Amino acid sequence: MKRIMFVCKKNSRRSQMAEGFAKQIGAGKVEVFSAGLAESHVDPITVQVMQEIGIDITQQTSKPLSQFNPADFDVVISLCGCGVNLPPEWLDREVFADWQLSDPEGHGIETFRTVRDQIKSRVTELLTSLSD
Description:
This protein has one domain: Response regulator (Rossmann fold, 3-Layer(aba) Sandwich). Helix content is 36%, strand content 17%. It contains 4 helices and 4 strands, in the order βαβαβαβα. It has helices at 14-25, 44-51, 88-91, 109-131; strands at residues 2-8, 30-36, 75-78, 95-98. The protein is globular, with a radius of gyration of 13 Å.
């Protein structure tokens, strides 16, 4: 079973959405985690827009990347362009990608929904590629 780490600066919005989607879409096929370069909190608007489509992420928490061992993961996905700031051992996993999605913080709920939908598409593509 592949282990996936989604990374973002604060582990507050984009990486939380990705974790929620991957847990639902890849249930029983992958183990999924998310973390941030810095620990923060899960943005309430992120929780709301995920609930709108039937995904409950209320039990997810913001965690620092330093809490995890890179050797435990097969796939590392940066969602914010922060890949350049990751320690090198996180970059040499079986799969590494930097999706560089816009941060919806400070924007209206429609921006959160747009980013959510982009993340769903990317996560779906990722999980399909891992099962090939």
